[in-house]
Design goal:
Layout lengths: L6 E7 L6 E3 L1 E4 L2 E4 L1 E2 L2 H18 L3 E6 L10
Antiparallel strand pairs: 1-2, 1-5, 1-6, 3-4
């Protein structure tokens, strides 16, 4: 697999545009954040983002983060 150079996330406006949170879904008692390293993954999660926007009434944005900084190496 290639190095991850970009990361995508569905992010909700929680209490206005200045208060955000990564959107997650609950599956088998595990919270799964709606993030991915390519648009194919994000397209596969789009239905969950749409459903959560409708159920919560919150605006959900698809964001791209593209600055890679290695903070630590754990071996």
């Amino acid at each position: 697999m290639p190095k991850i150079e970009k990361l995508y996330a569905y992010v909700s406006e929680d209490n206005g545009p200045e208060d955000e949170g990564v959107v997650a879904m609950l599956q088998s008692n595990t919270w799964i954040p709606l993030v991915g390293a390519d648009m194919a993954r994000m397209e596969s999660l789009r239905g969950y983002a749409n459903l959560l926007a409708k159920k919560t009434g919150k605006k959900i944005h698809l964001l791209e983060f593209s600055v890679r900084t290695e903070l630590e190496l754990i071996e």
